[in-house]
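To close the chapter, one final illustration. This time we ask the reader to focus less on the individual chains and more on the assembly as a whole: which components sit near each other, and how the overall shape emerges from the parts.
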Amino acid sequence: MQIDFFHALSANLLSPAVLFFALGIVAALIKSDLKFPEALYVTLTIYLLTALGFKGGVAISEAGIAKVILPALTAMLLGTLIPLWTYPLLRFGGKLRPVDAAAIAAHYGSVSAVTFITATNYLKGINEPYENYATAFLAVMESPAIIVGVLLGKMTLEKQSSIFNGSLKSLLREAVFGRSVFLLVGALIVGALCGKVGMDKVEPFFVTPFQGVLALFLLEMGMVAGQRLSDLKKVGPFLVAFGIIMPLLHGCLGVLLGKYVGLSLGGTTLLGVLAASSSYIAAPAAMRLSLPEANPALYLTPSLAITFPFNITIGIPVYFALAKFFLN
Amino acid sequence: MQIDFFHALSANLLSPAVLFFALGIVAALIKSDLKFPEALYVTLTIYLLTALGFKGGVAISEAGIAKVILPALTAMLLGTLIPLWTYPLLRFGGKLRPVDAAAIAAHYGSVSAVTFITATNYLKGINEPYENYATAFLAVMESPAIIVGVLLGKMTLEKQSSIFNGSLKSLLREAVFGRSVFLLVGALIVGALCGKVGMDKVEPFFVTPFQGVLALFLLEMGMVAGQRLSDLKKVGPFLVAFGIIMPLLHGCLGVLLGKYVGLSLGGTTLLGVLAASSSYIAAPAAMRLSLPEANPALYLTPSLAITFPFNITIGIPVYFALAKFFLN
Amino acid sequence: MQIDFFHALSANLLSPAVLFFALGIVAALIKSDLKFPEALYVTLTIYLLTALGFKGGVAISEAGIAKVILPALTAMLLGTLIPLWTYPLLRFGGKLRPVDAAAIAAHYGSVSAVTFITATNYLKGINEPYENYATAFLAVMESPAIIVGVLLGKMTLEKQSSIFNGSLKSLLREAVFGRSVFLLVGALIVGALCGKVGMDKVEPFFVTPFQGVLALFLLEMGMVAGQRLSDLKKVGPFLVAFGIIMPLLHGCLGVLLGKYVGLSLGGTTLLGVLAASSSYIAAPAAMRLSLPEANPALYLTPSLAITFPFNITIGIPVYFALAKFFLN
Amino acid sequence: MNTHPMKLVTIICEALAREPLKKLLAEVGAHGYTLFAVEGDGSQGRRTADIQEFANIQVEVIVPPPVAEKLLSRLEQEFFAKFAMVAYETDVRVLRREKF
Amino acid sequence: MNTHPMKLVTIICEALAREPLKKLLAEVGAHGYTLFAVEGDGSQGRRTADIQEFANIQVEVIVPPPVAEKLLSRLEQEFFAKFAMVAYETDVRVLRREKF
Amino acid sequence: MNTHPMKLVTIICEALAREPLKKLLAEVGAHGYTLFAVEGDGSQGRRTADIQEFANIQVEVIVPPPVAEKLLSRLEQEFFAKFAMVAYETDVRVLRREKF
Ligand SMILES: Nc1ncnc2c1ncn2[C@@H]1O[C@H](COP(=O)(O)O)[C@@H](O)[C@H]1O
Ligand SMILES: Nc1ncnc2c1ncn2[C@@H]1O[C@H](COP(=O)(O)O)[C@@H](O)[C@H]1O
Ligand SMILES: Nc1ncnc2c1ncn2[C@@H]1O[C@H](COP(=O)(O)O)[C@@H](O)[C@H]1O
Ligand code: NA
Ligand code: NA
Ligand code: NA
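The assembled structure is written out below.
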């Protein structure tokens, strides 16, 4: 079992995706002048989300929507609930201001698409099958925690000025129609409508080169995360520990739920990964708009500079090992 | 026959390319913040035109130039003539100003590369072979109608100011050396010189992922077209009807000509598509420069928001059905 | 032998990569409005360097580092030495100012990654195997000549002002951590760590479409080089001749060294190509920063508008013919 | 040729402020604006141009002096506390006064 | 250090005007210019940045006051009717007067 | 609402000057800056936007008048000979004087 785990760990650490991520961190640390153009960053994001959604949609059309509903609802519920215990923990354990606690809780209830993709990559690498429609879990887990977090934060704050009055409405709008959810859900529907026939046409673009594109993207994400490392002093030891321990707890929880809704070993791992992952794009953007009083260093840094690298490198094989353990 | 057509129609409507186009329209309608970077838009255009031209060139080198000349000249003639009847129709039927009638006539005589590509995609999807060198028809049909349209418009206008004196010369220059014609013809020549040997080297880049790239591009084009939908009120019912009926007539005409020059079922369909398609990039740019007095809402909106979506979704299977009907 | 050479030459001239390069030159000469977005240029560079480095690293992991060391050190030595004879030749033969002679010497001792990639492409096209780890030679040859050239130039100049005092330190930093060397060496290490297992995952992205991407990139490079052609009058006949004769001499030298360190026919050709190639990105950037007194037209134009096109079209098959001649 | 004095108000801020800002411009009565992406550094840290959501934009808007005053004072009251932002005004001279 | 008064003429217009504009700049005697892509909104509708042919550019050119006057008046006469365009001038102070 | 006079120093130069320029800005005491890529033409030739290393950037920095003077004079002494560059200052009015 232990040997198994180190095997799984090194399989992850020596994959091109993770190594390019490490290279990106090095680039940031030595202040290399390597820089991805913004347009490339956006393009890679669009590609990864579209490809992911499309594949997921095709998988749903094969498996039938009935099979997907229960685990998807479970995933959504999990995302909604996570802020409810992370908030008091941060508020009273971490002595954080209410608005900061709410913002961080939103991040850890929400999910990271890149972490999810890296996990599917990892499963493919070790030839472990998984439910391709798991993308649907990703799609439904992004927004609920953000909404809960913002509501928690709002309850502690006074009224907003005129321009921002509609902010709750625009938050809900963003949660449903925001860039990433829109692309993911849209491509999911397209994939579900096309099915296998459509997949045959676009497979050489959306599927075959996917892992390579991910490796290139993680090089950039390594730079983005690496630039945040210098902010770690600002967040203090409590949040650093939080950024490692909570993913492990949530990973466990996700794995257990995955088992109870009857997912395969691969799917169970993925639900663990989703629960463990924290958002560093959708959630921070929502906080800046809807909880501008919260301190970005406190919510973005742990999520981007601790939890994200931790999950990418060590977390994923850990959640896989947990899933294996619980499923036997 | 009827069953056949609905089969063909749904094959088109359920293809990833067309569904992503629809998704783009939805994104525009709900004002999603999804946005393709300009650099990505330009890159996709460069890729599609280069790949298309290259494949066409290789096909010419296989088929021999002799086979291509007659249908290419026919296509060119068709493009030149279309403005000659669309102009009076718009002028007297639609009661449009002479300069606007001329500008719209130029658009409908010229062609849309994206519509052409989507049609080849469609033929590939239903396993209907076509002359790959048909790209040459696309290349020669873009400019003639634009020149004719501008000449028609100029005849109704006074003299231009100093800076724009050379405008006719620069129009001809643009018609031959403009971005899209240059890329298409250039890649065509490169492909013709390399032949099959060259194709083997670059096939995994220029051919295999082509359909997927098209799907991504149509997502963006859906957004572009969707943003124009709100301008439809400005153009009035005559132009809306014009934007659907003219393509059908021109499609018929193209199909008939395709039959008489001896093209296959696929090639005949493509000539119909070219005749039916209208320009929404090259022609508007030329009009802004050479007929700045014309009203952009009147020429761009019908072409981009009516004819283009109509052709992409319903038109292509219709022209295919027509080709089938006439060739039997 | 002669027939053989013309065969080899035409195989190169009729490859898609070289033909697209020619098309780019045509675009520049006729002042076409075709333009690649900056982000696309940067993306293609990142892709080519990463893919190249990764493949090289995997090759090292297969061949063992021991096999690579001797030829790599030889390549590095060659790069270091080239400025030592080009400088006096330019200074006294060409009657150039010391600082200009030093700058040009730096360019011709350094290398062009694109020329190298085109050469590997060429070898693949004629089915001539080569040591994949030759990328390591490219990686170690970029910087030494730049450092030597700057040192030569500095010795002839007075002290610098305050902001630029650290310029030598920052030059060394740039030489080791600069964008292109960093990406190349970084991807090399990643590839060496992943080995074959990693390659299997990313091959459809980093290897299969590589030649097509190169063709697209050379279209852009043709435009860049073509825009420089009008500066040729400024550089005078000595530098024009220099830009063709020196590559031939250095190509010979590289081929001979390749033979003595025991490389294969393909590898020997590549060492010849590296020696013959001259830098037009890293070196000019370093000169602008570290030898700003040198005249850019004198160093950039010969390298970019003469040597680069010469090598791409005629040079590569010549160095291949030389390698064949010497190895028999 | 007649040129007329106007105010050019320049606002540099994080991209997230984009939509509220556009709304504000409409409310105070600006007839147009120009906008582009920028990089920057300031009291709230460096803003690189990678993640779109965290990038900076520069908005330039030409308005009559009273509108400029209204715009700046609403920025001060409603935006400065919430967004990384710099705003300043410049005197410019335009053709076609009625356009602004 | 000596600074000298110059005019900065800023022109925001659709990208299609680019080449005629460059020609005009040369004709009135500008010695250089700076240009970048922008998004914008104005009386002739929103200009997004997707289709290159329909995008907006901003051109900035530093010239002596008489050149600025000539430039603006020719813009007014020859360009305003044909292109979506805004132009204005600002007083600036430069080093190296002879450069402009 | 109180606006205060400041200087906006605009520097257009080749991208290679970027790091030395940032260093200079810190040395003279600027509290922030804004930067974006531009195309341009001037006495040292056209700068297109393809090869990053040879592109142009525009840097805008708001500073109190004495800092502007220091900045411009150091640019003149240390940068003009080495880099393709144009620099000028404009009078602007800002909110929150203490920010600059
Ligand atoms: N002194 C300054 N000069 C020019 N731009 C500035 C200055 N200070 C801040 N900025 C810009 O305004 C943005 C927000 O500023 P801040 O709120 O100070 O972080 C920065 O990212 C810069 O782009
Ligand atoms: N008041 C304004 N302030 C700043 N930019 C403007 C303004 N009005 C128009 N523009 C810019 O000028 C372009 C053309 O304006 P228009 O001709 O009014 O459509 C617009 O797309 C904007 O980028
Ligand atoms: N008169 C001018 N107006 C606006 N920008 C200029 C002017 N002259 C030069 N520039 C810009 O400054 C850069 C460097 O100028 P130069 O050193 O003259 O080549 C050019 O590439 C332009 O972007
Ligand atoms: Na989570
Ligand atoms: Na047509
Ligand atoms: Na060399």
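The longest helix of chain E spans residues 65-79. The pocket of sodium ion (ligand 6) is lined by residues C 108-111, 250, 275, 277-278 (CB under 6 Å). With these observations in hand, you are ready for the problems at the end of the chapter.
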